[in-house]
Amino acid sequence: MLYAAFATDRNSHPTVRPRIRHGRVDPGLAPKPPRVFAAIRAVPPTAPRGKTLPTFSSGILYNSLNDRLDETHRTPIMRYSTSRKQETREKLLDSSRAIAKKDGFDATGVDALMAAIGLTGGAFYGHFDSKDELFEAMIERDLELSRDMLGGNADSPPDHVAKRLRGYLSRAHAASPETGCVLAALGPEIARASPEVKAGVERTLKRLQRLWADRLGDTDGGWALISQCVGAILLARVVESDRTRSEILAASRRFLDKALQTPHA
Predict the structure, then answer these.
(1) Residue 14: helix, strand or coil by DSSP?
(2) pLDDT in tens, 132-182
(3) How far apart, in whole angstroms, are the C-alpha atoms of residue 222 and residue 232?
(4) pTM of the predicted structure, to 2 decimals
(5) What is the total count of domains within the chain?
(6) CA-based R_g, the chain, Å
(7) 155 vs 213: CA distance, rounded Å
(8) Comparing C-alpha atoms, which of 249, 205, 259, 198 is closest to residue 227?
(9) Of 69, 103, 121, which residue sits at a domain end?
(10) What domain range is 166 assigned to?
């Protein structure tokens, strides 16, 4: 014969001691019981009156009883749709790009990256398997945006490259790494990254180089433009005085204007 002893939270509900008949809870049970903690005791027919064998836990019966008692009062589990999860991932990706370019990726922990979008660090691994995976996705996204903006397309005007370079070599860009080029902001960290990350950077740079080389009619010119731009922004950020920073950027703009044979505006 089996009998069950039930105990509840003394602050939320009086003790309920239902009996189980044919696998069902006695209908006299209160309508909204709290969670039940059940201890099941086996009592052999020959045990002396008032004596029982040692108590053992029964997870099966415990779960069965609580399923019955809480069937209509169970708190639903929060589940997010695929679109909601993708939106959060994109938000994390965009926020992390800005934070890393301003403060450094290695120097920023997962908790800080998640706090920036209002989530805890534990939620990070629902979107990326590791911080390295996030870094790879960040670099890929940033370089794709830079390539599309700087490289242009068949519909871009003839002076597209010259205009983009003047914008790139601006004081605003030098003063705002969080919204600027990832190569100038995170170049040293990319250099220490995995071969997969560096291979992705190389593919994107080659595509940009080909776009510019086709516009200039000069293969070397494509690489020279990229190198001049990234190097000039890097130098402008490491100097202390605004005057020297302005001189570096202005000299680079004049040099590239001559190289492109485009009058300086």
Answers:
(1) coil
(2) 999 999 999 999 999 888 988 878 888 888 899 999 999 999 999 999 999
(3) 16
(4) 0.65
(5) 2
(6) 33
(7) 17
(8) 205
(9) 69
(10) 82-260
